[in-house]
């Protein structure tokens, strides 16, 4: 077994950790792999209200990921913990309610300035609202729209990560 210590750790947060955050996790992993940065950045996801821990991503998410060439195979729903908040450099939530839930979960002294909306990385003028909506109760078209939002936000976030990795520590 090979052990490695990533330079940066990223945690994506949504509600149940079966739609948006697993898709974002797989997207970022794929982009980092293509850029040769996969071993420098650890990527995970979790949910604020996970009803079924260990559940695989929603079948509609799996279809979108498969069509786009992202691997989701081992990603399973898990509940976010205060320890996760302490151990990640970037914590990217999908909507403001998640930020509130994370603030309530955080322990005194936690650095919540690392917590923000992933939608903040959407291109300027793309949308007025940085929320990545929950597609769970929508059809495949709703999932496709969320996929496109995640993809656009990921582009901006990857640029930010690359700049951060270039900075001397």
Write the layout of secondary structure elements.
Elements: E1 8-14, H1 20-35, E2 41-47, H2 59-68, H3 82-87, E3 90-93, H4 96-105, E4 115-117, H5 140-166
Parallel strand pairs: 1-2, 1-3, 3-4
Helix pairs in contact: 1-5
Overview in brief:
With 169 residues, this protein is of the alpha/beta class. The protein has five helices and four strands, in the order E-H-E-H-H-E-H-E-H. It has one domain: Rossmann fold (3-Layer(aba) Sandwich), CATH 3.40.50.
Provide an overview of this structure.
The protein is α/β, with parallel strands linked by helices. The chain has a single domain, classed as Response regulator (Rossmann fold, 3-Layer(aba) Sandwich). 41% of the residues lie in helices and 12% in strands. The protein has a four-stranded parallel β-sheet, with helices on both faces. It is globular and about 45 Å long. The two termini are 28 Å apart. The mean pLDDT is 92.
Mean pLDDT: 92
Question: Domains counted in the coordinates: how many?
Answer: 1
CATH superfamily: Response regulator
Beta content: 5-15%
What sequence of helices (H) and strands (E) makes up the elements?
EHEHHEHEH
- What is the top-level CATH class? Alpha Beta
Poorly predicted segments: none
Offer a few descriptive terms.
single chain; 169 residues; alpha/beta; Rossmann fold
